[in-house]
# Entry
Amino acid sequence: MALLFFNLPSSFFLVSFAFFCIAINLFSITNAPSGAKAARGDCLPVSSLITKQLFHTLFLHKDDTACPAKDFYTYRSFIKASKSFPGFGTTVSLTMRKREIVAFLAQISHETIGGRRTAPDRPYA
# Structure
């Protein structure tokens, strides 16, 4: 397994890292809840951190007709799936929750579009 990791193309790391940086920047722009509960991340569902608008900004081409999985990666299905795993993005500090969610979304982005030469917004977008 470790050998596979080291044989991955450099584009894998570049795409995932670029998506991670973009998502972190978008998180810092969105309005975060205030107060002590927000600082600890108490009682905030994943949907309060990833809004429908942010989800669609991160996955611009998920519903393109050229996409074989059109209508598969929907915001509704993401939120529904996140509720199936109660610990996903709902525990620890707010910063750690955001990192966990962004890492997951970066993986989805990489597996669905990133790294291809013919990707709609360039190979590493």
Remarks:
- DSSP finds seven helices and no strands in the chain.
